[in-house]
Every structure is written in structure tokens, then in C-alpha cells.
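Page 47, continued from p. 46.
Same chain as before, 262 aa.
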Amino acid sequence: MKKLSDVSPSQWLALLEQLSDIADPIALHFFNKASLKVEQKDNMTPVSEGDLAIEKEARRILSDTYPNLPVLGEEFGSCPEDSEYKLIIDPIDGTSNFIRGIPIFATLLAIEKQGEIVAGLVSAPATRDRWGASRGNGATHNGKAMHVTKVDSLAESQAFYGGLYGKEARGNREQLLHLLSQTKRQRGIGDYYAHLLVAMGCGEFAIDFGLAPWDLAPLGILVEEAGGTVTQVNGEKFSPYTQSILVSNGLVHEEALRAYNG
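Result:
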């Protein structure tokens, strides 16, 4: 059995690719399925049989390849937060989209080593998009290097955010509206996609709040390896356990923080 300390970031990314290759066809099998089974969890968020099937299969594969690797997953329990190594998995991020037939959903995967994410991958099979990064090796979209933009003012920025109303609206609405009012263009997209649009150079910043570790785990490394910046919304250091996230091209980051926090 290979020691976890001997696995390089690029090798960890290869494992995440393997897991995504397994997850994608499972997700597509259940997507738009007329008889899709959906339940409400205790936190009032939906879980579909697609979520359950993907995480179950990922855990089975890991039990054969890396049985000593702890798993922090959305659907089947977690390992201690202070585990030296762990795989973090969200089998379907954007479950509400998935249930409604909206093709913006993805499997989110990351490897955490001694408190740092060293590899992250997001795979969105309905749109045939896959984003990957390993620490020190850059970030890719469908195998091609991706980079953030060089726009350097909030007034010229394309902004992405989650929701303003309803049960998914989080953060301070007045502060968020003030921030958005300072930008050139705004789109409420949410979930993983908003942050990866920044990493791809399609916008300058994205902001979100009240998220779980599996919602956030791969996003920071993907943006950073594309040349961007990630913090909490209050400007403090980001981790998957901090709930809020602000990603940007780096050039508008401080201005966005000031506009939101006052």
C-alpha cells in the first residue's frame, strides 16, 4: 500500500481524474430521468439517487486503491477535520439544478494534505467541462491552460454571485447589492460555475456565502493556479472550512472587499 506522503500533487490529480471518469456516466444516467428519486435532508437541502450513487462508487474505488485515505463526503459521513490527508467530495454540486434539468451541475473533488488543498477537480458532464489543478502545476479547462483576466477596476468588472432571494440567499443583501452596483455587469449563477468562470477569464470576481467544505474544496486551488486570488468574504485567509468565498483575478480583489465590507 502506497504511503500517502509519497503521492505527489500531480498524482493526486490523476486519482481525481479517475474518480471523475467514474462519476460522469453515473450523473448522466440519472440526469433528466423521469423517475429520479429525491429526498430532503435534515438541513432541508435535496439529495438525489444520483448523489448517493456517485459517492458510494467513489468510496468503493478508494477502498481498493487508497484504503488508508480518509474521506469527507456530503452524503455518507465524514472523517475528522484535522485528518492529515483526506479526499473531499461533493458528488453533485448543484443538485437543485440537476433535479430541475438544468445542466449546470458537477462532481467536486479535492485532496487535502496537512491543511492545504494540493489537488482539485470539477467535472461537469452535461456541458462536457472539466477543470483541474494541482499545487504548483497550473490549472486547466478541458486540458488547456486557463488564466484570469487583467481587468484592474471594479467599474469594468463582470461579477458573479449566487442568489438574492429565497432559501439560498446568503450573506448581507444590502452589502452585496452595493458591491454589485459598482460593477459593469452582473450575473447570478452560483454554485461551482461562478468561480470557475473567473478562473477561465470570463469575469473578474465571484462571491458566495454559507457553504460546506465539499462545496468549496477544489475552488480555491483552481482559481489560484489560474493566477487569481481567493479569500473569505471578510478578507481573511480562505479554507474549505470557512463557509464564505471571494475569488477574483487578484487585481480587483481589494476593491471588491472594500465595496462589500465598507
